[in-house]
Design goal:
This protein is of the alpha/beta class and about 750 residues long. About 35% of the residues lie in helices and about 25% in strands. Helix 8 (about 205-215) runs parallel beside helix 9 (about 235-245). The protein is globular and about 100 Å long. The relative contact order is 0.08. The chain binds adenosine-5'-diphosphate and zinc ion.
């Protein structure tokens, strides 16, 4: 091989050819990182192909190979290329997602420390002499002799009570040698995991597990495990992973966002406590150094189990046997910046490339996945019962319209919910209260002139946060001191309306003065450790009522929680998003699923102004199939996904007219070249018209042939130039429609 085709970092993604100098031949492979000259400078690049010949005139040689082995496997390279085509982005952007920044740059290495060891046997005569002439040197020698191994220099000096000069003297004498050694940074340092044995599977689990094993032994199609909350899905994942390890293979387990599910990480770490070094954890809270070490631990084959959030789908494991996607319906699997990939879909694809089993699991599968299962693209597995005959929680709907006696606004915690919480407090059981909105009140307005405190950068009203006495924009973070009279008309009456978690906390504190109450939302969970602390306090019974946003909705398992209250179930229902109903159903089912996971049966109170909405009624009856059937029919009628593929194009600009004009131009171009079976919407202001100071316009396309559409789209976009201050983005399979 004489030439290498590479993609240069930070380039548009065009492939360039370079000659491989003879001395580097053999070391340059597909997936290698190299340094190349680009015009007058040097740049890093990734090799995507080796060539016998190149027709490029004036070809220049590579300058360097980085590292001693390729860092991108053929399958990951293939995944990156697929992403670029499917999600309509440059290959370079896709490759950026596949390789962590810290690895691409290569400017962080392993952590090194200096260690000292004795170079020879120490005889009594030497020691005696040292003790007489240089007691500190003697102490050092003594300490090393006792340790019988090398010691980190810092620890050695401390233990011996000696200084560096003494050590240097010993090195000069040839008695002691120092050398640097590599130490791994461990993100879970100081935590101990107690080995947890597998549970013997119950009847339903046994049947499901047989299918999982069959798929591991001979992968055919992805599996979708629909198991109600508490049916023991995690146990299936863990035993599946064990089986894969027994076969000498490796496994990836994706979880929605690691910060949100420390319990899952803990369960996995404990199950595999005996092989801690073979478990790698990848998530957004790692330091650069930790990420570097975890990545290399995977790439050099030391780690065989990877658990992580969406980007862990790119973990450079070899010989993959299983990819698990826990809570596959979760929106956080979708990346909201380029490349806008969906990790669940990439899991299915990578599984096909690697010829390994893929197991998607959820209590509320996404309609896309469920559709794939009912049409035979995936294999459907089900678990309808909770383990140990635990019952599904009983769900009561509280009609808030009837709570508003005589026209006054109903109280935020209804009478029935209050009584239920009281009963739990009396029995020393725990309650969870859920409200998907933080802050104290969601808007602040003037009764006299109608003024509303709105964000100057975004088209939303500001939320009042009482603890800081500030009004805050939840989109861009803009904040200001809360006014105590109207800034416009100077009237003294300022009205707070809408309820957030901070307000609920205050009300609950007043209603139950003796209870211990903790709030868990983005405002109270500011430190890295706070989440774990509160969960531990809750699990050990130090908290009676846990109140919070979606942070508490998912994946948590507390046996002593017998009551869940959903303060307002209607919150997400009226969003301008075709998934609004699905999201509400999922959220209610997941939140309700936190109740009754121990020996005592659970109860759920759902407060709502629209108690007859299908999403609420189906959730109440634990009827996933009923919901899926009705929702699927509705999507079919309106040609929404999964019946069509959707593409959302957004134009953003500080200049309203220019943003609008750019999208109109694109719209006109697209109209001329659109492939068949594609519908093109009209350019329109986005539901969130302005954000971070930019006006936003949307254009929605729906198609039955996404490949053709993205090809046409790329071509059109390549030829068009937009004004400099207009940003146009393409989102294939969008989840964020605001
Ligand atoms: P899911 O993930 O479906 O919500 P989990 O896997 O969290 O359910 O299981 C709920 C609880 O039941 C966990 O505490 C788990 O350890 C326990 N469990 C799971 N399988 C079994 C089993 N076969 N026998 C006994 N307990 C089990
Ligand atoms: Zn804002």
């Amino acid at each position: 091989m004489k030439f290498a085709r590479v993609i240069v970092d930070q380039s548009g993604g065009t492939a360039l050819d370079y000659a491989i100098p003879p001395e580097m031949e053999g070391r340059v492979q597909t997936g290698s990182r190299v340094a190349v000259p680009v015009r007058q400078r040097q740049a890093f690049a990734t090799v995507i192909e080796l060539l016998e010949e190149s027709e490029v005139p004036g070809i220049r040689p590579l300058t360097k190979v980085v590292g001693d082995r390729p860092i991108l496997s053929a399958n990951l390279l293939r995944l990156a290329r697929w992403m670029a085509t499917y999600y309509c982005c440059p290959v370079e952007t896709a490759m950026r997602a596949v390789l962590p920044q810290v690895i691409r740059k290569g400017n962080i290495g392993f952590k090194q420390r200096l260690a000292a060891r004795l170079t020879r046997e120490i005889d009594a005569a030497l020691l005696a002499e040292l003790e007489r002439r240089a007691p500190k040197q003697a102490a050092l020698v003594e300490t090393l002799r006792e340790a019988g191994a090398s010691l980190p220099v810092v620890a050695l000096l401390k233990a011996a009570g000696a200084d560096r000069a003494a050590l240097t003297a010993l090195v000069r004498k040839g008695v002691v040698a120092t050398e640097s050694e590599t130490i791994a940074r461990d993100p879970h340092e100081g935590e101990t995991f107690i080995l947890a044995a597998p549970h013997p599977l119950n009847a339903e689990q046994t049947e499901v597990f047989a299918h999982v094993c069959a798929a591991i032994d001979k992968p055919e199609k992805p599996l979708l495990l629909h198991g109600v909350t508490g049916s023991g899905k995690t146990e299936i994942y863990l035993q599946g992973i064990q089986r894969v390890l027994d076969r000498g293979q490796s496994a990836i387990m994706l979880v929605p966002e690691i910060a949100l599910t420390p319990q899952t990480v803990e369960r996995l770490k404990s199950r595999f406590a005996a092989m801690q070094a073979e478990v790698a954890v990848l998530h957004s809270h790692l330091s650069e150094g930790e990420r570097h070490d975890e990545w290399h631990k995977i790439n050099n084959g030391q780690a065989r189990i990877v658990i992580g959030a969406r980007s862990a789908i790119f973990a450079p494991l070899e010989n993959l046997g299983l990819i698990v996607v826990d809570e596959e319906h979760e929106n956080s699997y979708k990346q909201e910046e380029a490349p806008r990939y969906h990790a669940r879909d990439l899991a299915v694809l990578r599984g096909a490339f690697e010829k390994c089993a893929v197991l998607l699991g959820s209590a509320t599968p996404s309609l896309e996945s469920f559709h794939n299962a009912t049409t035979g693209k995936y294999q459907l597995l089900r678990m309808a019962l909770r383990v140990d005959d635990r019952k599904m929680p009983y769900i009561r709907i509280i009609d808030l319209r009837q709570e508003s006696h005589g026209g006054e606004t109903p109280s935020i915690i209804s009478e029935k919910l209050r009584t239920a919480i009281d009963a739990r407090l009396a029995r020393k059981e725990q309650s969870i209260l859920f409200l998907n909105r933080r802050g104290f009140s969601t808007s602040l307005s003037c009764n006299a002139c109608g003024y509303v405190a709105a964000c100057p950068n975004c088209s939303v009203s500001l939320t009042f946060h009482r603890a800081e006495n500030r009004i805050v924009c939840h989109i861009c973070g803009h904040t200001a001191i809360a006014p105590n009279k109207c800034p416009d008309c100077k009237a003294p009456g300022i009205k707070f309306s809408g309820v957030g978690t901070e307000r609920v906390e205050e009300i609950v504190n007043k209603l139950f003065p003796k209870a211990t109450i903790r709030r868990m939302d983005a405002d109270t969970m500011t430190r890295k450790e706070s989440y774990r602390e509160v969960l531990t306090a809750f699990r050990t019974g130090k908290i009676d009522i846990l109140l919070g946003t979606q942070m508490i909705a998912k994946g948590l398992h507390f046996p002593n929680v017998t009551l869940v209250g959903i303060v307002n179930a209607d919150m997400g229902l009226h969003m301008p998003d075709f998934r609004a109903g699905e999201r509400t159903f999922q959220l209610l089912t997941q939140v309700a699923g936190r109740a009754g996971r121990g020996d005592v049966e659970g109860e759920v109170f759902v407060q709502s102004f629209t108690p007859h909405h299908p999403a609420i009624q189906f959730a109440r009856h634990h009827d996933y199939d009923g919901f899926a059937e009705q929702e699927t029919e509705w999507r079919r009628q309106w040609d929404y996904p999964p019946f069509s593929k959707m593409v959302l194009i957004t134009a953003r600009s500080a200049h309203q007219e220019r943003g609008k004009f750019s999208l109109e131009t694109l719209h006109r171009r697209l109209k001329e070249v659109l492939p068949a079976h594609t519908t093109l919407g009209e350019p329109a202001p986005a539901p969130l018209e302005k954000s971070h100071g930019n006006y936003r316009f949307h254009l929605i396309l729906r198609t039955r042939s996404i490949q053709k559409l993205t090809r046409v789209l790329s071509e059109v976009l390549e030829k068009l130039t937009f004004p400099e201050d207009v940003t146009v983005t393409v989102d294939v399979d969008p989840y964020q429609l605001l």
